[in-house]
Specification:
By secondary structure, the chain is of the alpha+beta class. The chain folds into three domains: 60 residues, Roll (Vcp-like ATPase, Chain A, domain 2); 59 residues, no CATH class; 179 residues, Rossmann fold (3-Layer(aba) Sandwich), CATH 3.40.50. Helices cover 18% and strands 34% of the residues. The chain is built from eight helices and 21 strands. The strands form six sheets. A seven-stranded mixed beta sheet has the order 15-14-13-16-17-21-18, sandwiched between helices. Helix 1 packs antiparallel against helix 3. The radius of gyration is 29 Å and the shape is flat. The protein starts with 14 loop residues before the first strand and ends in a 6-residue tail after the last strand.
Length: 377
């Protein structure tokens, strides 16, 4: 499947996503045969938890062919969430065929529905393929699905950090960006999605095999016209003279990003400047990078950490005491009858939230900075 534009049919050689569940997705290449370890060409059979899939059977399938029809009583544009499959719903009054609305939902468990009002036609986004112990859905790949299913050659950057990177770098169609640390290509696909069709990505990796594998993936995904892959150690040799004064943004994913900062200054556009980002797992790396950025004229330097937390909403019972009795002092030797009239504790229920004591899921620190134009430095 070309990441460049959507397709209606699966062609031989396309990359497709096998969807078994939210936490069970796989990317495969739609080829009828593969070469095994012995060098023999055998039929391409992909094993899943729901049975074997003959890859030959999905070639030529059209997306969005699986349909289900039923009646239900729902409000207009209501979104149902009962399952883990993307479904498009079009519904209308039985007697008014021209009135149609659409909504996205997660559902395959339609319980508690009544035969009133609306007639639903469900269309699955992706072809349904029957397996020996269930079924799977064949989805078209995109950067989000590719990040979850790509072959890991290195540690990758995930969508929470990627969203902040693209936002802070101010990427748009037509932007020219330099990336150092191609790795598995997770971020690269998001960057290409943000800058195409008129932008360009120049990505560097010091490991020759990883650079070659990334180049082959971009070629197979139809993105080779928008990316150039280089095998170079940018900390020592820089980004090359061909990129000097031509780049809008620079991203570094390196063990020592401070060594590449002087080379990054050279590639920014002289009359515009640009945005800089560095991803560092350790705070010491981020500190050294910030010092290098300050010494080379960068401004608006900041380091961020993206953490997700779950706030639990609960009803808390709080005890309150009526303190009016304090205004009227009573003798210590009061009678038992008087003690019975002491104020009772009232219970007040309050809806509140509880934050976690510790934050898990640390990935790294994102350091951002701005390089002003030459006349403003």
């Amino acid at each position: 499947m070309s990441f460049l534009r959507p397709k209606t049919k699966i062609d031989e050689g396309d990359t497709v996503i096998i969807f078994l569940g939210v936490n069970s997705m796989h990317s495969i290449q739609a080829t009828p045969t593969v070469v095994n370890r012995k060098g023999e060409e055998v039929e391409h059979i992909f094993q899943t938890s729901f049975g074997a899939l003959k890859v030959r059977s999905i070639i030529g399938l059209e997306y969005g062919k699986y349909e289900r029809c039923f009646y239900c009583c729902l409000w207009r544009n209501q979104i149902i969430r009962k399952c883990r499959v993307f479904i498009q719903i079009s519904y209308r009054f039985p007697r008014v065929s021209s009135s149609c609305w659409f909504a996205l939902c997660h559902t395959s468990c339609f319980f508690g529905l009544t035969e009133k009002f609306f007639y639903f036609i469900l269309i699955i986004y992706g072809s349904q393929v029957k397996l020996s112990k269930g079924w799977a859905y064949i989805l078209q790949p995109n950067p989000q699905l590719w990040t979850q299913t790509l072959p890991h050659r290195t540690q990758i950057i995930y969508t929470p950090d990627i969203s902040m990177i693209i936002h802070q770098l101010d990427l748009r169609p037509g932007s020219v960006i330099v990336e150092s640390g191609t790795g598995s290509g997770s971020l690269s696909h998001f960057l290409l999605h943000a800058i195409k069709p008129s932008g360009h990505l120049h990505t560097f990796d010091f490991h020759e095999a990883r650079a070659k594998q990334a180049q082959d993936e971009f070629q197979n995904h139809g993105l080779s016209d928008f990316v150039c892959v280089y095998n170079r150690d940018v900390c020592e040799f820089g980004f090359g003279t061909q990129l000097e004064g031509k780049v809008d943004a620079v991203f570094l994913d390196l063990p020592a990003p401070q060594l590449a900062v002087p080379h990054a200054v050279k590639v920014f556009k002289k009359n515009q400047g640009g945005r800089f980002c560095s991803f560092s797992p350790c705070i010491e790396q981020s500190q050294r990078c910030c010092e290098a950025l300050k010494n080379h004229g960068f401004t608006e330097i900041q380091s961020l950490e993206i953490l997700q937390q779950e706030n639990q909403v609960k009803t808390k019972s709080l005890s309150s005491i009526n303190l009016d009795f304090v205004k009227h002092k009573k003798p210590l030797n009061s009678s038992p009858e008087e003690k019975q009239h002491l104020p009772s504790k009232d219970v007040i229920k309050v809806l509140t939230t509880f934050q976690p004591m510790t934050h898990t899921g640390h990935t790294g620190f994102l350091t951002f900075a701005t390089l002003p134009p030459v006349f403003a430095r």
